[in-house]
Design a protein that fits this description.
Elements: E1 6-10, H1 15-27, E2 32-37, E3 57-61, H2 67-77, E4 81-84, H3 91-96, H4 98-119, E5 127-133, H5 157-176, E6 180-185, E7 187-189, H6 198-208, E8 212-215, E9 221-226, H7 227-240, E10 246-249, E11 254-256, H8 257-271, E12 283-286, H9 301-307, H10 315-328, H11 330-337, H12 341-351
Parallel strand pairs: 1-2, 1-4, 2-3, 4-5, 5-6, 6-10, 7-9, 8-12
Antiparallel strand pairs: 9-11
This protein binds nicotinamide-adenine-dinucleotide (NAD) and thymidine-5'-diphosphate.
Length: 352
């Protein structure tokens, strides 16, 4: 890629997007980073305070479903590359309202592809990067790993919408030569994750001594990756990944939900000077998620062998940093918890 670059990052006010925006703005002073975000319930400009006044950063408040707005910004800024993260991202919400996932994740992605196709007459040094999930591969049994060759088998409306977006992205590569790259990553954890997701939800509940809703028997397995490691992998793939290729990203760090929640309880007991075992008493096994995928696990050898990427920190360290961040950033959490999210959470919990 050239060393002056105008990159459009979509969804940069969300969890992973804000880590990526901060990384790229700081690391590449010669680039200009444009962050396009609709600021849905999941978007939070507080996550971007560190970069909001930087000369090489511009926030664009808009919706990827708004074709006219995309036309306006693509004409005005002449982006060299797009790193696409904007999405509806929560599986439970996708079960309640699948349409919203098709609209943003499928149609929104298609709109971006069309804008690139129209505006990138010279494809040299251009790149469309779709940030996707391992959930497109479906659900594993007790053994095995997802590789880049695993067939897609999405089972939730969320993963079906992300899989569909990936298919469109590949179709634009084969049909129109659009220079694309895709990555499929496992579950991220770290600071600034919206508290509907497992880890920040549990941290908040433990702190407030609210019941801890573990779905089913808690035996479902997820592979957890420190969010900054994901952002670094995206930076690497954007610059060095091969056009047309897919890269799996994972933490090699599998946990059953129940073991993870118990680990959180133990750390929080220490941090909050509670008696050993006190927080665990808050655990409640609740009605399982519909279609709950049993296990996700990633074979990340391609990105390791071809691009030299590996997770940088051990889970114990990342986990403790995560807990500390939420405990030291109570205002961040309170602002979300006391807003519209409160009604959503209360309704969700009552339904279980
Ligand atoms: P998030 O929900 O925290 O953030 C999504 C962001 O997209 C928000 O800032 C939101 O305002 C914005 N957005 C939503 N709809 C939009 C629209 N129509 N137009 C413009 N902006 C819109 O999500 P996240 O966890 O940071 O995930 C980011 C991306 O990474 C998603 O594409 C997700 O599928 C993918 N991913 C996430 C994980 C994970 O563990 N969180 C793992 C693998 C892949
Ligand atoms: P989540 O953070 O929603 O991510 P994903 O569904 O994309 O993997 O959930 C992680 C795991 O935790 C998943 O197996 C569902 C489970 N879970 C619970 O047991 N209780 C909860 O309150 C939540 C939000 C998730």
């Amino acid at each position: 890629m050239s060393d002056s670059n105008k990159i459009l990052i979509t969804g940069g006010a969300g969890f992973i997007g804000s880590h990526l925006v901060r990384l790229m703005v700081d690391k590449y002073p010669n680039y200009h980073i444009y962050n396009l975000d609709a600021l849905t319930y999941a978007g939070n400009l507080e996550n971007l305070k560190a970069v909001e006044n930087k000369d090489n950063y511009t926030f664009l408040h808009g919706d990827i479903c708004d074709k006219n707005y995309l036309e306006e910004i693509f004409s005005k800024y002449q982006f060299d590359g797009v790193i696409h993260l904007a999405a509806e991202s929560h599986v439970d919400r996708s079960i309640e309202d699948p349409d919203a996932f098709a609209i943003t994740n499928v149609i929104g992605t298609l709109n971006l592809l069309n804008a690139c196709k129209k505006h990138w007459l010279d494809l040299k040094d251009k790149r469309f990067y779709n940030v996707s999930t391992d959930e497109v591969y479906g659900s594993l049994g007790d053994t095995g790993l997802f590789s880049e060759d695993t067939s897609y088998d999405p089972r939730s409306p969320y993963s079906a919408s992300k899989a569909s977006a990936d298919h469109f992205v590949r179709a634009y590569f084969h049909t129109y030569n659009l220079p694309i790259v895709i990555s499929n990553c496992s579950n991220n954890y770290g600071p600034e994750q919206f508290p509907e997701k497992l880890i920040p939800l549990m941290i908040n509940n433990i702190k407030k001594k609210i019941e801890l809703p573990v779905y089913g028997e808690g035996t479902n397995v997820r592979d957890w990756l420190w969010v900054t490691d994901h952002a670094q992998a995206i930076d690497l793939i954007y610059h060095q990944g091969k056009t047309g290729e897919t890269y799996n990203i994972g933490g090699n760090n599998e946990w059953t939900n129940i073991d993870l929640v118990k680990k959180l309880c133990a750390i929080m007991d220490q941090k909050l000077n509670r008696e050993e075992g006190e927080s665990e008493k808050l655990i409640r096994f609740v009605k399982d998620r519909a279609g709950h995928d049993k296990r996700y696990a990633i074979d990340a050898s391609k990105i390791k062998n071809e691009l030299g990427w590996e997770p940088s920190i051990a889970f114990d360290e990342g986990f403790e940093k995560t807990v500390d961040w939420y405990l030291h950033n109570e205002k961040w959490m309170e602002k979300i918890i006391s807003g519209a999210y409160k009604a959503y959470y209360t309704k969700q919990y009552k339904n279980r």
